[in-house]
Write a structure and sequence with these properties.
Mean pLDDT of chain A: 92
Order of helices and strands of chain B: HEEHHE
CATH topology of chain B: GMP Synthetase, Chain A, domain 3
Strand content of chain A: 25-35%
Largest sheet of chain B: 3 strands, mixed
CATH class of chain B: Alpha Beta
Structural class of chain A: alpha+beta
Oligomer: heterodimer
Structural class of chain B: alpha+beta
CATH topology of the largest domain in chain A: GMP Synthetase, Chain A, domain 3
Strand order of the largest sheet of chain B: 1-2-3
CATH architecture of chain B: 2-Layer Sandwich
Helix content of chain B: 40-55%
Number of domains of chain A: 3
CATH class of the largest domain in chain A: Alpha Beta
């Protein structure tokens, strides 16, 4: 990934890179082209290139270590996403009730790893396959609701879900003929209703 | 806990040397006061407070393991 770093001198640049958990010896540093600098509202600065998955894994490991966890971290980069997979003991505490702590970690990693990025990447974090399993069971629930709505010709209300889960539900339903979906209610009780058409 | 908050905050701001976390530890409650440069406050709070909320959730998860309640205050 490439980052734009604004600093007036090398000393300051080094300090900023340290804060970003980057080692000045492991990155490539160039002067930033004017158009990139101006897109960050500056006249000049540095363009720092680093290997995104390594940095993502290293920063995640550091946080987990400080949380007192023994965990393995694997990060894989694709075109627009970095997938971070965490495995280890005591994942329950890291995942949290309804996956809220894992979601918090994902929000922080997204902010940290995309800070000053010239091109942002979506950071997706899973622990012990928790989200994968949740997605599978969500797909099942939606399929059952679709079948029921079609069979009985009546709307079927799903349980309250997060915005991310609702988006997945809408995507699944929109790909199937004869049904449509709508969200209703207020957070945190906002839920999806599947309507027959 | 202090270390996590400090590390995350430093990685989020433009002035990492201005980041400081003070800890006030009670019997059951631990208060972490995060101080950042005035121009960096928005960076640790995030849009609609999303980042501040995420930092609180993460710190709380660590505190729970120690049987404590954690409060994260962001000072400017």
């Amino acid at each position: 990934m490439k980052y734009f770093v604004y600093s007036e001198n090398e000393e300051q640049l080094k300090e900023i890179l340290e804060g970003m958990d980057l080692n000045i010896d492991e990155v490539e540093i160039d002067e930033a082209p004017i158009d990139i600098a101006s897109s960050f509202g500056k006249e000049a600065g540095f363009l720092v290139s680093e290997r995104a998955p390594e940095r993502a894994a290293r920063f995640t490991k550091r946080i987990l270590y400080m949380m007192g966890m023994k965990a393995k971290v694997k990060a894989v980069e694709s075109e627009d996403t970095i997938n971070i997979e965490i495995d280890g003991e005591d994942l329950g505490n890291l995942i949290g009730s309804q996956g809220r702590t894992l979601e918090a970690l994902q929000i922080i990693l997204n902010a940290v790893l995309n800070k000053n990025a010239v091109q942002k990447k979506h950071i997706y974090v899973d622990a012990g396959g928790y989200k994968k399993r949740k997605l599978e069971s969500l797909k099942k629930v939606v399929q059952e609701a679709i079948n029921k709505a079609k069979k009985e010709g009546k709307p079927v209300a799903l349980d309250p879900m997060s915005a991310y889960e609702r988006k997945i539900v809408h995507e699944i339903v929109s790909g199937i003929d004869g049904v449509r979906s709508e969200s209703q209610g207020e957070e945190p009780n906002r839920n999806v209703i599947v309507y027959p058409e | 806990m202090k270390e996590i908050l400090e590390t995350c905050a430093k990685a989020l701001v433009d002035n990492p040397s201005a980041v400081n976390v003070d800890v006030v530890e009670g019997e059951r409650t631990i208060i972490l006061q995060l101080k950042v440069a005035p121009e960096d406050v928005g960076k640790v709070i995030g849009k609609q407070g999303r980042i501040a909320q995420a930092l609180r959730t993460l710190i709380r998860a660590v505190a729970v393991k120690k049987g404590k309640r954690a409060i994260v205050e962001i000072l400017d």
